[in-house]
Structure formats: C-alpha cells, structure tokens
Design goal:
binds 2-acetamido-2-deoxy-beta-D-glucopyranose, signal, 5-stranded mixed beta sheet, DUF1254 domain-containing protein, DUF1214_C_sf, DUF1254_sf, 3 domains, Jelly Rolls, 490 residues, Immunoglobulin-like
Length: 490
C-alpha cells in the first residue's frame, strides 16, 4: 500500500497548507456530525450509505468501460423509453453522452464543440457523484479544448492562460469520475440528426502523463458486474451478500478517492476502518450484525425527510447545499444516487417533486386523475419538463409513448390555443390520468399518462437554468395539484 501512504501524505500536506478546498462543517449528516464513536454495525450502516454511489457508478459505466474504455466518449443515440431500466429517473429531454474519467496517471483533454441555440451542459462529477463543476450554455462556454486533471484537495473550474493551449482546467478532487454531457433535444424529428452530429464532434483524448496516484480504473476494479442494485427506500431490506460486494468495491477505491470535504477525511476513514474497510480490503469484524446495520441505515434514510425544503403548493426537494454537490450530506447523497443519480447543482437545475400525501409520491385508483394547474410558463433560461415515473423510478408505458410534457410539447390553453410558440403567458393545466383511460380529444396534448389501472408513482418537475422566482421562497406559483374522477369523453 505504498501508493496509499503517498496519497495520504499529500492530503496531510494539503490540510496543513490550508489549500484543501470546500472545508465546511457537516450540518446535515447524522453520522459524521453526531456519531463519531460507532459500533461495527453503525459503522457498516455508514459505509453502505457513504459507498452507495459506487453501485450506480458501476451500473452507469460498466458497459461504457467494456465497450469504449475509460477516457473515451459513449453517446446515447436515443432518449430512454419504458422498455429500458438502465438509469433511474431518466430525463427524456436531452441526449446523454458518458465518459468514464480516469485521471490516475494521465491528464485528459476534452473538446467542446460549438453548440448554438440550445441548452447543453457538460457536468463533471467526482467518484462519489458530486457535481463539482459545469460548462455549458448557461456559462456561455467557449468551444475549444479543456484540460481535465486530478488535483487532490482542490476542485472546480479554473481559467488557464492562453499559451497553455487550453481554455481552462477542470480540477477533479478524485482520480476517477464521470462526465455526462447532455444536449437538449427539440421536439422535432429532424433534430435527432443534428444532436448526433454535435455528439460526434465531442472529442476526448489522453493528455500528459502524471505520477501514478491510483491503479487504473477498470471493470474489474468496479467489481466486474458483481454490484446489485440495492433499493434504498426505507424500509429497505438490504441483502447481506450485496452489501459485502459493495463494501469490497468501496474498500478498493476509498484510499485514493477521499471525501471532498477535507474535514471529513479523517472521521470518514476511521468509521470505514471500524466497518472493516482498510488498506484496500473489506474484512468485516465478527461483531457486525448486518440486520442491525440495515435498521440503522433505514433510520438515517428516514431522518432526511426532515431536511427537505418546500417550495409553494407542496412541491419539495433538498436544500441547495445537499443538491448535486452533496458536501457532507452522505445520507441525502445515497438517496439521490438511488432515486436520481447524477443530479446537477441548483444553479444548473431544480428537480421539484410533489409531496402529495407524503414524501413517497402520488397514488391513483384506476378511476381517478390529477390535474396540475400551472400559474403560467415557468421562467427558465434552459427548458422545463414534467416527467412521471413508476414506483421503481422507471418510465411508465403508455399508448402515446409519452413520458414527459413541457416547453417543447404542444400543450394547449383551455381555449385550445398553443401555450408555446406565442408570447401569451397564462394559466394552463396538465392532466395525469391512467394510461388505459383516454381523455377527451381537447385534453390529449396535455395528458401525461400514469400507470394503467392506477397505482403509486411520482412526478418530477425539471427546471433547467432556473431563474430567481423558481427557487425556494421565490415568486413563481408552483402548479396546484388536485385529485378528481378521471376525465373521459361524455
Ligand atoms: C456556470 O454557471 C453557473 C450558474 O450560473 C455557476 O454557478 C458556475 O460557477 C459557472 N461555472 C463556471 C465554470 O463558470
Ligand atoms: C426542426 O428543427 C430544425 C433544426 O432545428 C429546423 O430547421 C426545422 O424547421 C424544424 N422543423 C419544425 C417542423 O419545427
Ligand atoms: C442482530 O440484530 C437484530 C436487530 O437488532 C437482532 O434482532 C438480532 O438478535 C441480532 N443478532 C445477533 C446475533 O445479535
Ligand atoms: C408567466 O406568468 C407567471 C405567472 O404570472 C410568472 O410567474 C412567470 O414568471 C411568467 N413566465 C414567463 C416565462 O414570463
Ligand atoms: C417499473 O418499470 C420497470 C421498467 O419498465 C419495470 O421493470 C418495473 O417492474 C416497474 N415497477 C413497477 C412497480 O411497476
Ligand atoms: C412532442 O410533440 C408531440 C406532439 O405534440 C407530443 O405528443 C409529445 O409529447 C412531445 N414530446 C415531448 C417530449 O414533449
Ligand atoms: C376541454 O374542454 C372542456 C369542456 O369544454 C373544458 O372544461 C376543458 O378546460 C378543456 N380542456 C383543455 C385542456 O382544453
Ligand atoms: C402505495 O403506497 C401506499 C403507501 O405508501 C402503500 O400502502 C400501498 O400498498 C402502495 N400500493 C401499491 C399498489 O403498491
Ligand atoms: C372509484 O371506484 C371506487 C370503487 O371501485 C369507488 O368507491 C369510488 O367512488 C370511485 N371514485 C371516483 C372518483 O369515481
């Protein structure tokens, strides 16, 4: 474990020199703040929650690494449908590309092409799913070359002098990470070709060699497909073998990929050690009781409900300091990894959910529907949409193959005039009704199908490029939600 020691000494120096960025207290996490002295079961519960993003990292990148390798781009050619269950809560507004970033012994150069007249974002994530930097249309990012490099203890975007040949550097706090370029798709059949052409112009190349600080990122390192999708919604019943597989992978990556918050480096590694994670291996103590660890994890997951922030009209999400870039909010980080992996920071996007009768979403009988009455067009610089998901966070099959409505849809006002395409800004209503109950013709454009026969489901608003009125406490009146009988032709 020579490399490990070398790495820890760099971190120690960073701490001493005071240049370890982002050092905030941990106000939001019950584990790191109030419970440092832990039993093996408590420590195991923490390790599951802390390490959970590795499950989604592997699920998202295993196929990318086996098909194109690391530091290479893989572009999705179509948006998600209800037939796939690859990504949870996929958005159907943008086309994604994926880059498994490995900066363990190279810098990497990414070329951002010129992208006109549409929203796009290149979000950068560390290994633990923290969205620590973004380039894109909201930033008026100039097309050209950007340098990706591993800078222990430091993260974020940095401008570089012209003579370097780069427009800037994206400093990764961990050697492994992820870039997930997203390009908005206009609702128009020829647009797919235009976006494919843009994707083809994104280039990723190896740059300068650096002192190796970690082993190369590989499919084997990520567990070679052994990680099971652990459902984290309490009361989660976590399978012990799946937990062990997860913690084995966490043990392998943790030494080189410390928490971004410098204050957490020591407490996190000491709790992980109590869980049996040290020197790259997972060797649990014989005193671990996995049932008890599961219960402790459930209590922590449930306790985050107290931390949600309410917008108006009963829409909610987590507060800005625990959205996209989670800092020390490890429990929220794990929940979002499970329900909405690769969230963006709130500067880039808001993802309000409707609280309904509780945090777990909406529910309809087969003869019921919801109406969502919008006060007016949401004020966004990017785009907005409303997407419905089944209770496992996947898209809902329906005869229209429609998963989402928003600013690129043919929504109509009550007088059947189009909402978008004119300057008029008034109130309009979206109808959420089971997929097997077709509404009258004048509602068709505004119909977002719910599960056939009714059932539990959730909806997400997405505000990309939100403006002031949309943030918590802002002036925009969120949609008013009402449940009533299904609306059917008379
Ligand atoms: C990009 O814009 C966002 C939102 O305005 C801002 O928070 C972020 O710092 C900007 N990033 C860069 C690299 O300038
Ligand atoms: C579809 O998009 C293309 C490119 O953005 C545009 O040229 C064309 O006019 C659009 N077609 C329709 C029917 O809106
Ligand atoms: C493990 O924990 C569970 C739940 O707290 C408890 O019911 C069980 O008796 C414990 N098992 C052992 C062997 O201590
Ligand atoms: C549309 O009107 C609503 C309600 O008055 C307002 O909150 C919103 O900002 C307006 N949207 C735009 C895009 O101007
Ligand atoms: C949700 O959708 C996925 C993908 O279609 C499916 O596998 C799963 O069974 C559905 N879950 C529920 C609760 O209907
Ligand atoms: C695109 O427009 C069609 C026709 O109005 C509509 O059925 C569909 O839902 C729209 N797609 C999205 C993603 O809004
Ligand atoms: C459809 O028509 C009914 C009856 O005239 C009306 O109450 C309703 O607002 C209309 N809905 C839409 C979306 O146009
Ligand atoms: C829907 O959720 C409620 C409350 O969470 C639960 O009691 C009920 O069993 C769920 N229904 C289905 C069909 O899963
Ligand atoms: C839906 O059906 C149930 C029984 O099948 C009935 O009790 C209920 O009143 C109906 N709800 C509406 C809104 O029609």
């Amino acid at each position: 474990m020579m490399l490990y020691r070398f790495f820890m000494s760099i971190l120690a120096w960073g701490a001493i020199l005071g240049n370890v960025g982002n050092a905030q207290p941990s106000p939001l996490d019950s584990f790191t703040n109030t419970k440092r002295a832990t039993s093996p079961s408590e420590a195991t519960a923490f390790a599951i929650i802390y390490g959970y993003p590795m499950i989604q990292y592997a699920a998202s990148l295993d196929s990318v690494i086996t098909s194109v390798g690391t530091n290479a781009i893989f572009s999705e050619k179509n948006t998600a449908t209800a037939d796939e269950a690859a990504i949870v809560r996929p958005n159907v507004d943008t086309l994604y590309s994926k880059i498994a970033v490995d900066l363990s012994s190279y810098e990497v150069v990414i070329t951002i092409p010129k992208i006109d007249d549409r929203f796009y974002v290149f979000p950068f994530y560390d290994l633990w799913s923290n969205n620590f930097a973004n380039l894109g249309s909201l930033n008026n990012t100039a097309p050209g070359k950007y340098l990706l490099r591993h800078t222990p203890g430091r993260s974020g975007f940095e401008s570089l002098p012209k003579d370097t040949g780069y427009l800037g550097a994206v400093n990764f706090p961990t050697p492994y990470g992820l870039v997930l370029p997203r390009i908005l798709l206009k609702n128009n059949s020829t647009d797919l070709d235009i976006v494919h052409a843009i994707q083809d112009q994104i280039k990723v190349e190896k740059g300068r060699q650096t002192i190796p600080l970690a082993p190369p990122l590989s499919y084997e390192l990520l567990g070679s497909g052994t990680l099971e999708p652990l459902a984290l919604t309490p009361p989660a019943a976590l399978d012990t073998n799946s937990v062990k597989a997860l913690l084995t992978v966490v043990a392998r990556v943790a030494p080189y990929n410390p928490p971004a918050n410098a204050r957490d480096i020591i407490p996190v590694s000491s709790v992980l050690r109590v869980a049996g994670i040290s020197n790259g291996r997972y060797s649990p103590s014989t005193f671990v009781n996995y049932t008890e660890a599961n219960q402790i994890a459930n209590t922590a997951l449930t306790s985050t409900e107290k931390l949600i922030q309410l917008f108006n009209n009963e829409w909610f999400d987590y507060p800005p300091e625990a959205s996209g870039n989670f800092h020390s909010s490890y429990t929220i980080r794990s929940i979002i990894a499970y329900t909405g992996y690769l969230q963006l920071v709130q500067d880039e996007a808001l993802y309000p959910e409707y609280i309904g009768s509780g945090i777990h979403g909406l529910s309809l009988a087969g003869n019921e529907s919801y109406t969502l009455t919008f006060s007016g067009k949401p004020p966004v610089k990017g785009f907005w949409s409303l997407t419905a998901y089944n209770s496992s966070s996947y898209l809902i099959p329906n005869p229209l193959n429609r998963y989402s409505l928003g600013d690129r849809s043919s929504l109509t006002y009550d007088d059947s005039q189009l909402v978008y395409g004119t300057g008029r800004n008034g109130s309009f209503t979206i109808l959420i009704q089971p997929a097997d109950v077709a509404p009258p013709v004048n509602w068709t454009n505004n119909w977002l199908p719910a599960p056939a026969g009714g059932g539990n489901f959730t909806v997400n608003l997405r505000f990309y490029g939100p403006t002031g009125p949309l943030y918590a406490g802002g002036a925009y009146a969120y949609p008013v939600v009402k449940k009533q009988a299904v609306i059917v032709p008379q």
